[in-house]
Amino acid sequence: MFKKFFVKALLLGVVMTGLTGCSEGGDSDQMTVGFMNTNLSNEYQVTMLDGAKAKAEEMGIKLVEQDGQGDAAKQISQMEQLISQQVDAIVMAPYDKDACAPAVTKAKEAGIPLVIVDSTVNNIEEALTFVGADETIVGALAMDTLVEAIGGAGDIMMIRGPIGNSAEVGRSTGALDALANYPDVNLVIDEPADWDREKALKLMENKLHGDFDIVGVLAQNDEMAIGAQKAIEAAGKQDQIKVIGIDAIPDALTAVAEGKLLATIYSSPELKAATAVQVAVDAANGQELEREYYVDFVLITQENVADFQ
Q: Which domain of life is it from (predicted)?
């Protein structure tokens, strides 16, 4: 069984505890690390890139940025580009756990250290390590929080990320496992909106016009939670339907503070990315790694949201 290494976050600070053997960086031959985002139109991914940039600057290394634009085929092509550039190590946030697997194999065959961050792939054993959160626990926490808020009974909706994305899989599994403990709660709508605010808004609008009496919505990220909330507010049902999101992006924190979102769950994208860059550099320097580095998460409600703004 793989060992798990937990990385702690203090509020919004990017603080790593327990990481050993860190490279100093700044050698005469500057180290180069490729950083592959899934889609930089997503605010969470932009924040993650910011964490990677800050860590790269701190360590004196060059960061080669790639935007996958929500396209697994593009990420495979970008992996090939990074390999041809002979970067020292690569950090990849895969868009799809199945479709992005060939990119992982390419890095392994090229002998370039690969760190998978935030979402995983079905051939994760071909990468050196994974940095992220335990998404099943995140999904379960979101479901438990929503069910408590609606009084343990009623019809609810879940809005998923892209089907097959590892975060979607983990959050769905955790949420559905938790839901099994609540016989009086019915999941009547369970559809994807691909992490997209506008898609979630339109999906919510359509369902509000249907034959449903929804009292709660679990959106698997904050972009979709905000989209759903806007549709609910436009329909005048903000007092009837509770919405919870995940990721703690700034817009969601504002919505929680204003009482428009029930809650969000914080698992620092900056810390994930900074840890992944640090681990990639350690790998390029030949240091031994753990197989998994897990970042802690926090439930954010109106009671504690001020600590995160």
A: Bacteria
> What does DSSP assign to residue 123?
T
pTM value > 0.90: no
Average pLDDT value over all residues in the chain: 91
Residue 114, Cβ density class (10 Å: 0-12 exposed, 13-18 middle, ≥19 buried): buried
Domains of the chain, first to last: 4-133+269-295 (3.40.50.2300), 135-266 (3.40.50.2300)
Q: What is the 3-state secondary structure of 30-79?
A: CCEEEEEECCCCCHHHHHHHHHHHHHHHHHCCEEEEEECCCCHHHHHHHH
Alpha-carbon distances, residue 36 vs 89, 178, 183, 233 (angstroms):
11, 33, 42, 36
Q: Can you tell me the distance from the alpha carbon of 256 to that of 267, in angstroms, rounded to the nearest whole number?
A: 16
How confident is the model at residue 7, as a pLDDT? 57
Determine contact, residues 222/193, Cβ cutoff 8 Å: no
Q: Tokens for 101?
A: 């697997």
Query: Does the pLDDT of residue 216 top 50, yes or no?
Result: yes
Q: Residue 122 burial by CB count (10 A; 0-12/13-18/19+): exposed, middle or buried? A: middle
**Residue 86, phi then psi, degrees to nearest 5:** 55, 50
Please say whether the beta carbons of 9 and 295 come within 8 A: yes
Q: How much is the pLDDT for 210? A: 81
CB of 246 within 8 A of CB of 138?
A: yes
